[in-house]
Each structure stands twice: as structure tokens, then as C-alpha cells.
Write a structure and sequence with these properties.
- The structure holds 2 protein chains of 2 kinds.
- By secondary structure, chain A is an alpha+beta fold.
- Helices cover 29% and strands 19% of the residues of chain A.
- Among the domains of chain A are: 48 residues, Uridine Diphospho-n-acetylenolpyruvylglucosamine Reductase, domain 2 (2-Layer Sandwich), CATH 3.30.43; 101 residues, 2-Layer Sandwich (Enolase-like, domain 1).
- Chain A is globular and about 60 Å long.
- By secondary structure, chain B is an alpha+beta fold.
- Chain B folds into 3 domains: 199 residues, Aldehyde Oxidoreductase, domain 3; 309 residues, Aldehyde oxidase/xanthine dehydrogenase, molybdopterin binding domain (Aldehyde Oxidoreductase, domain 4), CATH 3.30.365.10; 143 residues, Aldehyde oxidase/xanthine dehydrogenase, molybdopterin binding domain (Aldehyde Oxidoreductase, domain 4).
- In chain B, helix 9 packs parallel to helix 16 and helix 13 packs across helix 14.
- In chain B, 58% of the residues are buried.
- Classes of the chains: A alpha+beta, B alpha+beta.
- At the A-B interface, helix 13 of A face helix 4 of B.
- The complex binds flavin-adenine dinucleotide and iron/sulfur cluster (SF4).
- The site of iron/sulfur cluster has 14 residues of chain A, from helix 8.
Chain lengths: 338, 733
């Protein structure tokens, strides 16, 4: 860990000012990801700007029926918030599929969106990694890549985004509220994270002195027919090999609306509008789910150890859509896959 | 008088542990304590060309950076570095010279006023290496495997019989490297006193081993150093040998003449010992009735370039099942890694896993029930030595375990049982471990108020030694357990070996009995002196200590209270120390056994595996404490689940580096992976092994569990996975 300065931001504007004044500065919220990375000397901020006391902890309904969630709402509070449990149970479920109770108590919404990849080379400063040190090479490409991406990869990086929450947010069409020196802006969550391309060191489209102030969920919550299924190497407390967020609107057995997003397979939550469109107007049957899975996984490429992810993802998509259609969502508390 | 022996007595140190009163090695305070942080090598092999500590030394609060170039003297002979349980070879010497032998090797110790400063300054130490060619991949280098042990004596002609066997199974099983990951981090607090003497609080399984080692390495007299380790937060074999942090903390204290603490990080602990990766080839040849004609077992294991660590992987196949022909070999491959070490049931956890998977495969080939097969080749004699066992109730384990599990309802066809979307599989395996015992000395100080202090240098690594020592002492002295205080794990206390090999329960219990007998002898002498004593002329053998008195065994109304005996004798305390040695018995084999039954449920499409039930039936002589004993077995079962499904230390052989050196990425079972565990202790009276009939439970709990689970996975899915751990991608179609 390096030596660093510490400053506590008094308000959002102050945080932006402090960020702009020091290009080496980093915001810190719950610290559950940033501190770990600092201990590994992966992140070496010159200054920590503590935003944990900023008034960004509200969950509020807006006039148009959407929901605003402050960037500092702890993951646990969000998962168990009555409005989330009732209107957006998919989001609650995805959050509870992540990390552990203790971590979720500390972790913030903004920090969760910004958490960095778990690629083992990214964490080990003794190995080359383009994301950590641009142009040093990608050790995972021909190395240990069992956990790595199969969609949207580049020649420079095949890392995945590890967030569960983001997968549900992508499916729900969430927006990210951002404040910066030139005011506030909003971008779709699906445009927030980037594909690695040839700049894998840039995870998101957040500007250097910008701060996430919150997220917004559109009124459609898919609260009847949804499921979040996370497949991992043990039943809890492990990152996803593949995860699926599925949300359906049904009229009888016919699908009138469909959302799907994948985790653990790409540098960002993976959505395909084409796959979702293909489900609309169709009966909720395994065949149609299978077809949608194929579309969602179109263009998948694999490396030496992660080939299994394609078929696993295909099956997980079908299972999750089935759970959603039957209104029997995956429980995050039971010790079994439904 | 068995008020306590054999009962589910709660841990006597439980309260101290849950309240935090129990202090661990890294928690002892000292005036002016300094903190050391280890700088590790980032290459697997070569030498340090330049080590620049100037920037680190400039950090405010840093006192020194110790390296091979500026450290205080260290012994230069291998003998000094070879501890009580060191394997053959030339032990690793931290900060000795400029050579790098493995990735993660300590190459400098930054010592500072506080831990954070030391950790920061450690990042400023600049190292340049001259890297050499290296190899870390066992499978890639298996061609270089060389027979290390003297070859076991073969029986008959295994190769020929195997080739001609009616039914034959031969296969290779791969067990990966695994790390212990005890909850407590490795730590040493070296306390320097003004006369230059050192008190070393160390995380270890053997304080006297560490004491002797430090005296040798630093050329100190026995009285210059005292080593204590009153509580250990798990070790599982990783603390049998002195670990490098104890050398570094001592070096720091000697260099700076101040107290120094070194705590390793979780990541750094992957630079210590580990269960070596093994490739296990098992061959079984049988007649069509299921009796064995031939058993072969060859193990190829990794070790370092500097030591030959080898454990008995194949000996279990050698002794367990009756077969006229057999051949065994154990080969080592030397690689650029640190030396492996013992890890719970070393050799057996891996070797029996391979053997018992192979037995399952043979039972399938024979179309014979797996228990039936094991009964067909059941042996009442240790096959390798052709000796009877002191006791062996394995048959009873099969029967009781099968009954509790419901084995008779098993449909033998793979993929024949299901529960909704899940395939159900039932598998079983045998477990076996040694019942060893070692010389241990115990001191008892009995005071006239009927309280006793029992002390011994043995460690309690979390297994419950404090508790069983208190139980046995309470019964032997005829006192309530509350009147017994136990002191352990201090090098100045009476002699004990490292706590390992499952030998400490039997060894310490009988040492307590021996010392208690000395106390009784003295009480008899004192009581006999009382005018008109009810014990006048009594033989020692006809006396017992009971209810705070010494009494005639034949008539315990004829008794004298401890208080009276001591008052009349004019003594306030009786202090007796006794070394207990077990008589050599070359006429018997000594083992514990188990039958393990596992149920798995495997999601047919997704491959997700759950171990929903385990029944472990254990035959381990008399169980001293059914509560701590059960915990010990449950822990073994959980670890077995990890070995079957989760645990694997992953290395990138291009860098020779462990890439999952933390417990976020190195998976062990979490609560959600653990379901029903049923532990059965089978009655196993043993009149030969020792007076109390105790065998020890430390390791048997894990043996057989991974195989039972792997066999259940086969039964569920029809897929035989021979490369552990069995992750879901391996069972996906
Ligand atoms: C052992 C372990 C297991 C885990 N398992 C999972 C899992 O299974 N699934 C999962 O989804 N997650 C998992 N996590 C990750 C966890 O969800 C994240 O660490 C957490 O969400 C980060 O939130 P935080 O508030 O602590 O972020 P911090 O660590 O405080 O910050 C993380 C990053 O976000 C930036 N940041 C924080 N707030 C803002 C803001 N408002 N605007 C802009 N930037 C900001 C920081 O500058 C920093 O770069 C795991 C973590 C650990 C340690
Ligand atoms: S996949 Fe990305 S994060 Fe991992 S080593 Fe390659 S560049 Fe680094």
C-alpha cells in the first residue's frame, strides 16, 4: 500500500473540485474494492476523497413513477428496501447473489458499478496486464482464463465485469446519474461500462472528475416474472462463471416484453436487443428461450479454458427464462438451484 | 472413575476463545514493539542481483531493512536448520544468501514503528534479479520423476497378474496442490528483554521444536529463548515445522535489540507449505467374484529442489485390502517451488482418494455393490506387515454407516435416481489413518485445597487438547474438572513432540495418567502415615483417587481426603512430573478406519453439484470426548467436500506463480455448500493399543470423503471425474 492523502468531501461539488485538483485522486465509498486493490498495490491513489458521508443515501419515487437511488445507498439496504422488494425484486435478488452479507453492508451502489475486474493477473503486479499497465500484454489470453469473457472481448483484454447488481440494472434499463465540472448528465447503464477494445484500462465512460450521484430505475419493474440465476464454483460467496437476469411481461403464455442480461461473460453486462425482440410475441416455451439464448450468445469466442461457458450460458439463460415465466424466481437464500 | 472421559465435555477454553481473552501469537503486547513486513521474491528461480533499500530506509518510522547482506549471523550448517520433522535435504534459510528458490520467498524484512509504515516501505524496496530457467509444472515434468522412498517390498508378481486379471481397472487420478488456509495468520511476536533474552510467541504446532530450531539457527543457549504458543487458530500441519516468520521476527529482535512482531498476510501464506500435487496411478485386478488378485499404486508427487518431502500415499493400498500380488512406488519430481508439508491426513487424503475411486470403478466393472466388494477383500490383518490390528471395526463402520445412510435403497445404475431437475448420486468410500503415540511428559501440581495444575509443552491447535487433558486429569485425580487448570505450549514445560499425526490425544492422556499415578503414590505415602489410617498397608494398585480423596479401590469407604493426607504429611502441594513411554508392540498394526457415505445432487443441465448428505462412521478406539470428537470429524468432512469440489492452488507455470493466493479466489466450502453431516462413532474396544484404548481423531475425518463424493458424482451423472476438484464444467455434457 502506498502513502496517500485523505480528504473528506463536504458535498458533491467539493468532491468534484477535489477530483479535478488531483489527477491521482480516487473517490472512496465503502472501500471494499478500492482498499483491497490498494493493499495489492494495484491502485495507488495519491489522495482518497471520502464521499461516504455525502447525502446520497435516499431511495425516492419520482413523479413519473421511476425510482431514484442515491449512489451511497448500501447494497444491503437497497436489496431489503420495501420499494425494491416490491417493484424491482430482480434487482434485490441480484444484489443478494453477490459477495457476503458483511461486504454488502459496506458496499455502495456507486462503488458496485465501479468495481474492477477479478482477473487474477490484474491483481498480481508481478505479471503483465494491459488493464493495469497499458501495453504490457495480456497474461490471461494464453494463461488462466477459465473465468474470462466470451463476448465483446478484444485482442488486448478478455476480462469480465464482476458485478451482479449491474446485470440486473442493465436488464431493468437503469440510468446512471453523473455530476461533473460541467454539470449533470445521465447515461444508460448499458452505455456506462465499456468493452475493452484497445483501451482496457478504461472500464467505464465516467469522466476523470465525474462522480456518480445515483441511479434511476424506469417505472417498468418486471416484478411478476423475473429471475436472477448465478452459476458459480460454490453455492455462495463466489463470483459468477455465468449469471443471467431475466425479466418478462406475459399475456397469458405470450411474451409481450422481455429483458435479459448476462454477467460473467463480458467486460460489461451483456444485453442483446435482438434477442429480446425475438422473444416478443412468442409463447413462453423452452424452444423460444433457446432461440433467444442463441441470439444473446451470438459471436461468442472462447480461449483455452473458458469454452464451457458458452453452453453453460445457453442452458442458464433457458433455465432463468423458465423460472421467470413460471414466476418461480431463483432464491438467493436456498442452498439449491431451482 | 469416568466422570469425564468419554463424555461430551464442552471445551474448557471455549469461553476464553469466544470472549477474546485467549491471546494468539500476533496479539501479545510488548513495550516499544516494532513491526516487520516481508518483501517477497517475484521470480521462482535465480539470484538477487541488486537489492536497493535506500528509499524504504528514508521513510519516517522505518528502523531497518534486513536482507541477506546485513542480517545478524545465521547458522551455516544444515543440521542447525533441520527441525524435528524436517524431510531429507537442505532446509530453506530465510535471508541467508542471494539465491531465490521459489516465488514468494522472503528476501527482505522491513522493520518499522508500525505495521502500515513497514508495509508501505516494503513497496519501495527495489529488487533486480538474474532469473534462471525454471520449471513448476508437475505434469509437464513427470518424465523426471524419480523413486525416492526405498521401494516397498512387492508381493508376488503384480504386473503379470494385473495383465491377466479377469476384471481389471487401471486409471490415473490427479490431486492438485492445496493450501491449509488456517483462520489465524502466521505470526510471531519476539519479545526482547533487557538481558538480551527472548520470549517468542509463535504460531506453531510444536513449541519445543521451534525452541530447539531457534537455538540452533541463532546459536543460543536453551535458557536464552523461550517459545510459547498458548492458542493456535488452526494449522492442519502447516505449523509442524518452524515457519520463516519466526526466523525473521527473531532476526529483527536480535538486529535491533527491540521486540519485533511479524504477521504474514494471507497472500504470503501461500509461500509456506502445502499439500503436494500428486498424480496417482492405481491398478486393480480381480477375480469375477470380486476378490482381488493384484493391487498396484504409483504416486508421483511434487517437491522442492532442496528437500525431498514425501508422504505415504501408496501405503494404504498396501495394507488395506487383501491381495496376493501388489506393487507400490512413490516418485518425486523436484521443481522450483517451496517444499510441501503435511496437511491433514498427509498421503492418505490423496492416496486413499485415488484408491477408493479406483475401487468404485472396479465395483462397477464387476457389477458388484461397492460395500460388497470391500467386504470381499476385507482383511483382518495389515497386508503390508501381515500383522493383526490392535482392533479393527471397519466391518461395523460399513454396516452402521450403510444403515444410517439407507444404502440398501440404492439403485446401482448411474443416472437412475433423481429429484426434480437434479440427478441423485450415492457413493461410499473407506477411510484409514494411523493410530500413533509418542512419548510425552506431564507435570501435575496438586494443592491441598484440591486444585491441580496440569502442564505440558504440547500445543492445542484447536483440536481440544486443553479439554481432554483436563478431562483425563479430573478423572485420574478424582476432582471436578473445574478444579483442574491446564497449561500448554510453552517450551519450558515438560517434554512433548509437535502436535500432529493424530497422536496427541492418546499420548497426552496417558502422560496425564502416569503423572497422576505418581501423585497417588505420594498421597498414599502421606495417608498411610496417619495414625489408624484406613489406607494403612494398602497396595498402590488397590487405590484410587475419587471425590477429592484417596480410597481403596476394593472398598472406597476406606478413604482419606486429599486435604487430610497433605495436612498430616505437612505438605501444601505435591508436584510430580512423569514421562510416559509406550511399550513397543511389534505384533500389531495400529489404525483408525471409517466408512464414508455421500449423497450428491447434480443439476442435470447446469452441472451444479451439491453434497446434500454425508454419513461418516468412524472406528477410532475409545472416544475421549464425543463433542469435540464429533466437531473434529465434521471439520474433516467439510474439508473433504472442499477437496472433492473446490480446493485447488492454481499456478501459472509461465511465471511459476500461484495465481489464486487469497481466500476469495481459492475456494473452500461455505455454509451454503454444507448440508447434513452425520457422525457415528462405532464401538471399538481396544485392549492392546494403550490403557485407555484411545487412537486419535485428528485426521481420519477427511480420509475417504473426497472419494465418496466423487463416486457419488459418478453414480449421479455416469461421469467419472479423475481430476480434482470436480468443478461443474467437468460434469457438463
Ligand atoms: C471477497 C469479495 C467478494 C465479492 N463478491 C462479489 C460478488 O459475488 N458479486 C459482486 O457483484 N460483487 C462482489 N464483490 C464486490 C463488491 O460488490 C464491491 O467491492 C462493492 O460493491 C464496491 O463498493 P464500495 O462502495 O465498497 O466501493 P469502493 O471500494 O469504495 O470503491 C470502488 C471504486 O468505485 C469508485 N467509486 C465509489 N463510489 C463512487 C461514486 N459515487 N462515483 C464514482 N466512483 C465511485 C471508487 O473510486 C473506486 O474506484 C466482492 C468483493 C469482495 C471483497
Ligand atoms: S484479461 Fe484484461 S485484466 Fe486480465 S490480464 Fe488480460 S488485460 Fe489484464
Amino acid at each position: 500500500m502506498n502513502n496517500f492523502q485523505y480528504a473528506r468531501a463536504t458535498d458533491v461539488a467539493d468532491a468534484i473540485r477535489l477530483l479535478a485538483a488531483d489527477p491521482g485522486a480516487k473517490l472512496i465509498a465503502g472501500g471494499t474494492n478500492l482498499i483491497d486493490l490498494m493493499k495489492e498495490n494495484v491502485e495507488r491513489p495519491s489522495r482518497l476523497i471520502d464521499i461516504s458521508r455525502l447525502p446520497l443515501r435516499k431511495v425516492e419515487e419520482t413523479a413519473d413513477g421511476s425510482l431514484r437511488i442515491g449512489a451511497l445507498v448500501p447494497n444491503s439496504d437497497l436489496a431489503y428496501h420495501p420499494l425494491i422488494e416490491q417493484r424491482y425484486p430482480l434487482l434485490a435478488s441480484a444484489i443478494l447473489a453477490g459477495a457476503s452479507a458483511q461486504l454488502r453492508n459496506m458496499a455502495s451502489v456507486g462503488g458496485n458499478l465501479m468495481q474492477r475486474t477479478r482477473c487474477v493477473y490484474f491483481y498480481d503486479t508481478a505479471t503483465p496486464c494491459n488493464k493495469r499497465r497499458p501495453s504490457s500484454g495480456c497474461s490471461a489470453m494464453d494463461g488462466l482464463n477459465r473465468n474470462h469473457a466470451i463476448l465483446g472481448t478484444s485482442a488486448a483484454c478478455i476480462a469480465t465485469n464482476p458485478s451482479d447488481m449491474s446485470v440486473a440494472l442493465a436488464a431493468l434499463g437503469a440510468l446512471v446519474h453523473i455530476a461533473g465540472r460541467s454539470g449533470e448528465r445521465t447515461i444508460a447503464l448499458t452505455d456506462f461500462h465499456r468493452l475493452p477494445g484497445d483501451t482496457p484500462h478504461v472500464d467505464t465512460n465516467l469522466g476523470t472528475s465525474e462522480i456518480i450521484t445515483g441511479i434511476e430505475l424506469p417505472a417498468r419493474g418486471f416484478a411478476q416474472n423475473y429471475s436472477y440465476l448465478k452459476i458459480r464454483d460454490r453455492m455462495s460467496y463466489a463470483f459468477a462463471l455465468v449469471s443471467v437476469a431475466a425479466a418478462l411481461e406475459l399475456e397469458g403464455n405470450a411474451i409481450s416484453g422481455a429483458r435479459m442480461a448476462l454477467g460473467g461473460v463480458a467486460h460489461k453486462p451483456w444485453r442483446s436487443l435482438e434477442a429480446e425482440a425475438a422473444l416478443r410475441g412468442q409463447a413462453a416455451t423452452p424452444d423460444h428461450f433457446s432461440r433467444a439464448a442463441d441470439l444473446l450468445l451470438q459471436g461468442a469466442t472462447t480461449r483455452s479454458h473458458n469454452g464451457f461457458k458458452v453452453e453453460l450460458a445457453r442452458r442458464a439463460i433457458v433455465r432463468t427464462l423458465t423460472q421467470a415465466a413460471n414466476a418461480t424466481p431463483q432464491s438467493q437464500a436456498h442452498k439449491k438451484i431451482a | 472413575m469416568n466422570a469425564y472421559i468419554g463424555t461430551p465435555t464442552s471445551r474448557v477454553d471455549g469461553r476464553a476463545k469466544v470472549t477474546g481473552a485467549a491471546k494468539y501469537a500476533g496479539e501479545f503486547p510488548a513495550d516499544g514493539l516494532l513491526h516487520g513486513f516481508v518483501v517477497e521474491a517475484t521470480i521462482p528461480c535465480g539470484r538477487i542481483a541488486r537489492l536497493d533499500t535506500s528509499a524504504a530506509l528514508q521513510v519516517k518510522g522505518v528502523l531497518d531493512v534486513l536482507t541477506h547482506a546485513n542480517r545478524p549471523p545465521l547458522a551455516d550448517k544444515d543440521e542447525a536448520w533441520r527441525d524435528e520433522v524436517a524431510p531429507e535435504g537442505s532446509p530453506f534459510r530465510p535471508l541467508y544468501d542471494d539465491t531465490v528458490k521459489f516465488n514468494g520467498q522472503p528476501i527482505a524484512l522491513v522493520v518499522a514503528e508500525d505495521w502500515e509504515t513497514a508495509k508501505f516501505a516494503a513497496t519501495l524496496v527495489r529488487v533486480e534479479y538474474e532469473q534462471r530457467g525454471f520449471a513448476t509444472d508437475l505434469e509437464g515434468e513427470r518424465g523426471k520423476a524419480a523413486e525416492m522412498d526405498k521401494p516397498h517390498k512387492p508381493r508376488g508378481d503384480a504386473a503379470a497378474t494385473l495383465a491377466q486379471a479377469r476384471v481389471r481397472h487401471e486409471a490415473e487420478y490427479v490431486i492438485p496442490t492445496e493450501h491449509h488456509n488456517p483462520m489465524e495468520l502466521y505470526a510471531t511476536t519476539a519479545i526482547w528483554d533487557s538481558n538480551g533474552k527472548l520470549t517468542i510467541y509463535d504460531k506453531t504446532q510444536g513449541v519445543q521444536n521451534v525452541h530447539k530450531f531457534l537455538c540452533g539457527v541463532f546459536d543460543k543457549k536453551p535458557d536464552d529463548i523461550r517459545v510459547a504458543s498458548p492458542y493456535v487458530g488452526g494449522a492442519f500441519g502447516s505449523g509442524l515445522r518452524p515457519q520463516y516468520q519466526v526466523v525473521l521476527a527473531t532476526l529483527g529482535a536480535l538486529a535491533l535489540k527491540r521486540s519485533v512482531r511479524v504477521v504474514l498476510t494471507r497472500q504470503q501464506m501461500y509461500g509456506l507449505g502445502y499439500r503436494p500435487m500428486t498424480i496417482e496411478r492405481v491398478g486393480l485386478g480381480a477375480k469375477s467374484d470380486g476378490t482381488l488378485d493384484a493391487v498396484t499404486h504409483e504416486a508421483i508427487a511434487v517437491t522442492s529442489r532442496y528437500e525431498d518431502f514425501a508422504r505415504n500415499d501408496t501405503g494404504w493400498a498396501e495394507q488395506l485390502y487383501s491381495s496376493p500380488n501388489s506393487r507400490f512406488s512413490h516418485k518425486l519430481v523436484h521443481l522450483d517451488v517451496s517444499t510441501p508439508c503435511d496437511m491433514r491426513a498427509p498421503g492418505a487424503a490423496s492416496g486413499v482418494c485415488a484408491l477408493e475411486c479406483a475401487m468404485d470403478e472396479l465395483s462397477v466393472a464387476l457389477k458388484l455393490d461397492p460395500i460388497e466388494l470391500r467386504l470381499k477383500c476385507y482383511s483382518d490383518r495389515d497386508q503390508s506387515e501381515n500383522l493383526p490390528y490392535t482392533s479393527k471395526q471397519l466391518r461395523e463402520c460399513y454396516a452402521r454407516g450403510a444403515d444410517a445412510f439407507g444404502w440398501s435403497r440404492r439403485n446401482p445404475a448411474p443416472r437412475s435416481m433423481r429429484d426434480g431437475k437434479e440427478l441423485v448420486g450415492w457413493g461410499m468410500a473407506t477411510g484409514v489413518w494411523e493410530a500413533l503415540q509418542m512419548p510425552v511428559a506431564v507435570r501435575i501440581v496438586l494443592t491441598s485445597n484440591g486444585h491441580a495444575e496440569v502442564s505440558c509443552a504440547a500445543s492445542d491447535i484447536g483440536t481440544g487438547t486443553y479439554t481432554i487433558v483436563a478431562q483425563v486429569a479430573a478423572d485420574a485425580l478424582g476432582l471436578p474438572i473445574e478444579n483442574i487448570s491446564v497449561r500448554l505450549a510453552d517450551s519450558t514445560l515438560p517434554q512433548a513432540p509437535v502436535e500432529g499425526g493424530s497422536w496427541m490425544a492418546a499420548s497426552s492422556a496417558h502422560a496425564v495418567l502416569a503423572a497422576a499415578e505418581e501423585v497417588r503414590k505420594e498421597l498414599l505415602r502421606l495417608a498411610g502415615k496417619i495414625h489408624g489410617s484406613p489406607l494403612a498397608g494398602a497396595e498402590l494398585a488397590d487405590t484410587v483417587l475419587t471425590d477429592g480423596s484417596i480410597a481403596r479401590a476394593s472398598d472406597n469407604r476406606r478413604a482419606v481426603s486429599i486435604a487430610d493426607a497433605m495436612r498430616h504429611g505437612g505438605v501444601e502441594r505435591i508436584e510430580k512430573e512423569k514421562l510416559n513411554q509406550f511399550g513397543e508392540d511389534k505384533k500389531h498394526a495400529r489404525n483408525t478406519h471409517s466408512a464414508v457415505f455421500a449423497e450428491v445432487k447434480v443439476d442435470e443441465l447446469l452441472g451444479v453439484i451439491r453434497v446434500t448428505r454425508v454419513v461418516s462412521a468412524i472406528a477410532a478406539g475409545r472416544i475421549l470426548n464425543t463433542k469435540t470428537g464429533r466437531s473434529q470429524i465434521m471439520g474433516g468432512v467439510v474439508w473433504g467436500i472442499g477437496m472433492a469440489l473446490h480446493e485447488e492452488t492454481v499456478m501459472d507455470h509461465r511465471f511459476g506463480r500461484i495465481m489464486n493466493a487469497n481466500i476469495a479466489e481459492y475456494h473452500i466450502p461455505v455454509n451454503a455448500d454444507v448440508h447434513d453431516i452425520d457422525v457415528i462413532f462405532v464401538d471399538e474396544p481396544d485392549a492392546h493399543i494403550n490403557a485407555l484404548g484411545i487412537k486419535g481423531l485428528g485426521e481420519i475425518g477427511i480420509v475417504g470423503v473426497p472419494a465418496a463424493i466423487a463416486n457419488a458424482v459418478y453414480h449421479a451423472t455416469g461421469k467419472r471425474i479423475r481430476r480434482f476438484p470436480i468443478t461443474l464444467d467437468k460434469v457438463l455434457d
